[in-house]
Amino acid sequence: MIVPFAAGGPTDVIARVIGERMGQSLGQPVVVENVTGAGGTIAAGRVARAAADGYMLDLATWSTHVVTPVLYQLQYDVFRDFDPVVWLTQTPLLLVSRKDIPANNLKELVGWLKASASPVLLGSAGGTDQVAGFLLQQQTGAKIQVVPYRGLAPAMQDLLAGRIDLLFDQPSDAMPQIRNGTIKGYAVTRSSRAAIAPDIPTVDEAGLPGLHITPWHSLWVPKGTPPAVVLKLNAAAMDALADAAVRNRLSAIGQEVVPRAQQTPEALAAYYKSETDTWWPIIKAAGIKAE
User: Fold this and answer.
1) What tens digit of pLDDT does each residue of 40-70 get?
2) How far apart are CA 75 and CA 44, in angstroms?
3) What angle do CA 141, 145, 61 make, to 5 degrees?
4) Residue 173: per-residue pLDDT
5) How far apart are the first and last CA of the chain?
6) Which pLDDT score, from 0 to 100, does residue 236 have?
7) pLDDT tens digit string along 8-36?
8) How many other C-beta atoms are found inside a 10 Å radius of the C-beta of residue 259?
9) Pairing of strands 166-169, 120-124
10) Contact (CB, 8 A) for 39 and 290
11) Could you tell me where the DSSP H helices lie in 72-194?
12) pTM listed for this prediction
């Protein structure tokens, strides 16, 4: 299982939790390998060029398979070079700020953004949070300057130190800091609240309706993998997602398992098509560049 990000992050944890349980169903261990760089394109490209025998899986994210294809000149085609296996999890983003910003809810934050004479500094690890920042700027008319980071962890450190103003982070990373009072949390980026952050309102409730962005994780194999092999991998993944221990471990990092009816290869293919149809025009219009 090829993971496009470094060990220790949420995507890596998802891979290891699900891969370990899949191995039980498959009767052999699932080895997780972290292949980082170039917005996930190195990892995906490796899977695209692999033998179509089911022995190499691509752990794809919203960032690597929706945002990255617009930003990079790819050596593969996301539609022609992969077959879908299973849609795994999803989670919204959480808009947070440094603690000394004089806003205690989203409406007050929007007022502060609009009144700021200088550009507001938004930390970004690339991809997902860049798109979220564009939507925030589009809705509020605020001047927002994106500050690139190699990951969300160093961005959070700078937010804690007051060197940047805003961050779109995963709820699991942000909630401990919010509870400790070291940052402020305003809203989650979808129409329903996050189970891991039940007290944080949605953007619709808080005053920015429609600022929806819900990153997800899924598994793919090289195009042409035999259907029976795809179904075997899908069954192992669905077994993992039904396991109470797996669900508890995913919940602890803020990941929500998608409904069982949405875990089929066909459901993933349809959902992925709808996501690219929705987001590719938005990302292109935003003029977002790879950093």
Assistant:
1) 899 999 999 999 999 999 999 999 999 999 9
2) 10
3) 95
4) 86
5) 26
6) 98
7) 878 899 999 999 999 999 999 999 999 98
8) 10
9) parallel
10) yes
11) 106-115, 128-140, 152-160, 171-180
12) 0.89
> Do residues 88 and 218 lie in contact, with contact meaning Cβ atoms separated by under 8 Å?
yes
pLDDT in tens, 200-217: 999 999 999 999 999 999
CA distance 249 to 4: 21
Contacts within 8 Å (CB) and 24+ apart, 106-110: 106/186, 106/187, 106/201, 106/203, 106/206, 106/207, 106/208, 107/206, 107/207, 109/186, 110/140, 110/142, 110/207, 110/208
Cα 238 from chain centroid (whole Å): 20
Quick one: which of 126, 278, 93 has its CA closest to 203?
93
Helix runs in the chain, H state only: 10-26, 41-48, 62, 68-71, 106-115, 128-140, 152-160, 171-180, 203-206, 227-242, 244-252, 265-286
pLDDT band at 291 (very low <50, low <70, confident <90, very high): low
| Inter-helix orientation angle 227-242/265-286, to 10° | 90
Number of alpha carbons in the 13 Å side-chain half-sphere of residue 120: 26
> Tokens standing for 8?
């220790």
**Token pair in block for residue 265:** 């290869």
Q: Within its chain, how far is the Cα of 86 from the centroid?
A: 16
Domains and CATH numbers, the chain: 2-91+215-286 (3.40.190.150), 94-206 (3.40.190.10)
Question: Alpha carbon 175 to chain centroid distance?
Answer: 17
Cβ within 8 Å of residue 82, ≥6 positions away: 44, 47, 48, 58, 60, 220, 221, 222, 223
DSSP three-state, residue 89: strand
Q: What is the mean pLDDT of residues 119-134?
A: 88
